[in-house]
Amino acid sequence: SVAGHSGQLVFGTLQGKSCVCMKGRFHVYEGYPLWKVTFPIRVFKLLGVKLLMVTNAAGSLCNTYRPGDLMIIRDHINMPGLAALSPLRGPNDERFGPRFPSLWDTYDHQLRTTALEIASKIGQADLIHEGVYCMVGGPNFESVAEARFLQKLGADAVGEC
């Protein structure tokens, strides 16, 4: 994990529900293979986790976003995946899902709507957006031309795997 992240799993409860949180993770740009980067997610699946909430720092590609704003991911562009760098490569283990999963509705509409409603109720609607997240390899930031390219693809924010 990167500096400032302890690389720990923390187990606990929230409002009577069991939960597990990751304090940091491995990154492909640190030299880890993709199977190691995604391994904790597979462990979560085996632990019975039904809902995964992910946070990260990302760069904005949208002129209307301000530093400190939050973006709820509506859809994503997996640039490494388009070049065959996918965590689904290799033998398929049916415990983790089908060989060719649909990504049509990856980000639950009801959860996104609930988050937006809560933001509105607490007077923070102007700080939260829905958008398209683009994952790139890193660790370098994007060039001006790359940022323009990602905007034209419809990305609102960009981050590294």
Structure summarized in a few sentences:
GO terms for molecular function: purine-nucleoside phosphorylase activity. This protein is α/β, with parallel strands linked by helices and 161 residues long.
Whole-number average pLDDT? 93
Low-confidence stretches: none
CATH architecture assignment name of the largest domain:
3-Layer(aba) Sandwich
CATH class of the largest domain: Alpha Beta
GO molecular function: purine-nucleoside phosphorylase activity
GO cellular component, one term: cytoplasm
Family: Belongs to the PNP/MTAP phosphorylase family.
Protein name: purine-nucleoside phosphorylase
How is this structure best described in words?
- The protein is of the alpha/beta class and 161 residues long.
- The chain has 2 domains: 1-54, no CATH class; 56-161, Nucleoside phosphorylase domain (Rossmann fold, 3-Layer(aba) Sandwich).
- It contains 4 helices and 6 strands.
- It has helices at 34-47, 79-82, 109-121, 144-153; strands at 8-14, 17-23, 59-60, 70-78, 128-136, 157-160.
- The strands form 2 sheets. Strands 3-6-5-4 form a 4-stranded mixed β-sheet.
- Strand 5 (128-136), helix 4 (144-153) and strand 6 (157-160) form a beta-alpha-beta unit.
- The model has no long low-confidence stretch (mean pLDDT 93).
Question: What keywords describe this structure?
Answer:
alpha/beta, Rossmann fold, four-stranded mixed sheet, two-stranded antiparallel ribbon, 4 helices, 24% strand, purine-nucleoside phosphorylase activity
